[in-house]
Amino acid sequence: MSTQIRWPDPYVTQALEAVTGASPLVFGLTNYITAGLNANMVLAVGASPAIGGNPAAVKPLATAAGGVWINLAAMVTDSPELLREAARAAHEAGTRWVLDPVTVGAGIPVSDDLAADLLRDTPPTAIRGNASEIIALAGGLASSKGVDSTATSEEAVPLAKVLARRTGAVVAVSGPTDYVTDGTEVVAVPGGHRWLTRVTGAGCSLGALVAAFLAPGTDPLRATVAAHAVLAEAAGRAAETARGTGTFAASVLDELSLLSGI
């Protein structure tokens, strides 16, 4: 059984108000294709993004930030050791951080090995991925088609709970309905729109949003649920007027900024 939460539940709106009120610094390592959208979504909810893998800046930024997100697709340009360094710095500083296990379970050993190392050595506050990634990360049998899931979010919920209990992290599974769990409670977040899967970086941006919502100190389950619910609401509103996926992407940013009131 799961609880269902969506905008404008106070559970969500109060978490968003905490972000806009704090305007936290949020640091991320992600791939260059999605960095712009990630940064703009963080800005649209009132937080301040810093993105990039400059080796001299990673430790200071991960230490100073209110929240950090690490997307394994950053390995397009950044070394696995640099991602480890960011996670270590966040962990040692007590900075809440988010793992986005892109391509785990897709037959890319370097991604699988790095994810396992990060979970063991520097446990994240939250983990956000598609169903196949979460199943694989939890030790189940799953495969991905590149960065796309071959499983449904509903199928991933039991193993998401196992992963949450094992790591102590809140685990979020993306899909037509998103599911978020702390290992005991499961929250369903409906809404969104199918065009989110046609915009490069929309899923990756959820990791950035979760980091932004974690930064003010909001309870991790609540922060993760709220980030998903705010994006789902913005996407649903954007789809009402967008002509196609291009205008939809821009409209999602518009709607996020309108929800946050920045």
Account of the protein in words:
With 262 residues, this protein is α/β, with parallel strands linked by helices. The chain has one domain (3-257): UDP-N-acetylmuramoyl-L-alanine:D-glutamate ligase, CATH 3.40.1190.20. 51% of the residues lie in helices and 16% in strands. It is built from 10 helices and 11 strands. It has helices at residues 10-22, 35-44, 55-64, 80-93, 109-121, 131-137, 153-167, 202-214, 220-241, 245-260, and strands spanning 3-4, 25-29, 48-51, 67-71, 96-100, 126-130, 144-145, 148-149, 170-174, 178-181, 186-189. Strands 1-11-10-9-6-5-4-2-3 form a 9-stranded mixed beta sheet, sandwiched between helices. β4 (67-71), α4 and β5 (96-100) form a beta-alpha-beta unit. α8 crosses α9 (220-241). Catalyzes the phosphorylation of the hydroxyl group of 4-methyl-5-beta-hydroxyethylthiazole (THZ). This is Hydroxyethylthiazole kinase.
